[in-house]
From TrEMBL:
UniProt-recorded name of the protein: GNAT family N-acetyltransferase
Organism listed in the record: Saccharothrix hoggarensis
Record domain N-acetyltransferase: where: 2-142
InterPro entries noted in UniProt: Acyl_CoA_acyltransferase (IPR016181), GNAT_dom (IPR000182)
Keywords attached to this entry: Acyltransferase, Transferase
Taxonomy of the source species: Bacteria, Bacillati, Actinomycetota, Actinomycetes, Pseudonocardiales
Any one GO molecular function term: acyltransferase activity
Coiled coil: none
Amino acid sequence: MIHLRRLDDEGLERLLGLAVADTDPADVMPPGWTVDRPDDFRDFYRGFQHDAYEIVADDHTIGMARLTDQGDTGMWIARCARGSGVGLAALRRLVEEAHRRGVHTITADTTTDNTAAITILTQAGATLDVDGNHVTARLPVPAPDAPRTTTQTTPA
């Protein structure tokens, strides 16, 4: 079961360890970051810690997801967890979190060569707008189902 855990200082250290051990540095930070610069990683993620979550499976951190109050999102997943449905499950948890936070549309920016992200976004029901190599995905956040009422009729 995949769930999201708000990023705190301990979680930041778990993410850093994961980023160093099991990702491509370009996946987790803007180009130019290298694993020998851990303080840059910490500073970068502290900059949006309010919007960041650890992606957790079986009590192990396997990636990071963010969701801003405006609905902007992004995520990265460790190599060891890719291809197993984690991305789609994490996106579904983000949709649940978006609803709790009053966000009506989730927006993700990626590139046409990021086939994993495009596949996940499409499977989740996002609308994709492609402009050259840039892709903007918009995913509406559905309202929760209205409570159901049942009425029983008794034979006369």
